[in-house]
Specification:
The chain is mainly alpha-helical and 251 residues long. It contains twelve helices and no strands. It starts with a helix and ends in a 5-residue tail after the last helix.
């Protein structure tokens, strides 16, 4: 093959790859609102075919089943969260202020992309997860591990700086799990319950933040919330790191 032929073949391959990615993006763009509005049963391959100019065979070439579409939507979610966590981790401050910055990112993510958060929770169901491919499961796990790794890195930094001292049997992973549990549990309740106001929980996001601080105060992560206004830290991070995100939050 001549150099010219080789270059032409590479361009053709690049164009095909670009076309494949564009088709996949269109399928996902169409599938997301369908899934959000109608749930698992509302996501229908026949409806997707009728809404797009692609044949059913073309859609199945990209996604072998609708569970594969759902996990790919969840992977998109984790990509967005990872990008926000990476930005938050660069916040200049004490180790506890940096962990507060991660909490800020987690809250703003849920507020900005509530549909993404919903998809991420749904994929955890065994009935859906078990039908997805190992390749996409690994992709999702990789993004999740990277998000958790950022949190773990700040926890270890706090320990190295002497800002937090673990007990004899405690581990950094326990702190990460505690923060993760508060985050996923709190935001899952917020996004699925319509009666929190009736229960006297008029500002549940702020309640999650305060429970973070109670947890971190409990393990004596310095400086304590009695010494630093972490609500003010939340505001600083929101403006300085995520000012562009605030305008996207639904009113």
């Amino acid at each position: 093959m001549t150099k010219r032929q080789n270059g032409s073949a590479m361009k053709t391959s690049d164009r095909k790859q670009r076309e494949i990615k564009e088709r996949e993006a269109k399928i996902l763009e169409c599938a997301r609102p369908m899934f959000i509005e109608g749930g698992y049963n509302g996501l229908n391959m026949d409806r997707l075919t009728s809404m797009l100019e692609y044949s059913k065979g073309t859609i199945y070439n990209h996604f072998s089943c609708k569970e594969e579409i759902i996990i790919t939507l969840a992977i998109q979610t984790l990509e967005k969260r990872l990008a926000m966590f990476e930005k938050a981790a660069l916040f200049q401050g004490t180790s506890r202020e940096r962990i507060a910055a991660i909490g800020t990112a987690a809250e703003l993510f849920v507020k900005t992309y509530p549909d993404h958060f919903c998809v991420e929770q749904t994929i955890r169901l065994d009935s859906i997860w078990d039908k997805t491919s190992e390749e996409r499961r690994k992709m999702m796990s990789n993004y999740e591990h990277r998000c958790i790794g950022i949190v773990g890195g700040i926890v270890r930094d706090g320990i190295a700086r002497g800002d937090v001292q673990l007990g004899e049997n405690a581990t950094p992973e326990e702190i990460v799990f505690g923060l993760w549990s508060l985050s996923v549990g709190g935001y899952s309740i917020i996004t699925t319950s319509n009666s929190l106001g009736e229960l006297g929980m008029s500002d549940p996001f702020r309640m999650v933040r305060r429970n973070y601080n109670r947890f971190l105060d409990g393990i004596q992560w310095q400086p304590l919330s009695s010494e630093v206004d972490y609500d003010a830290v939340f505001d600083r991070v929101s403006q300085e790191v995520f000012g562009n995100v605030l305008s996207q939050i639904p009113v």
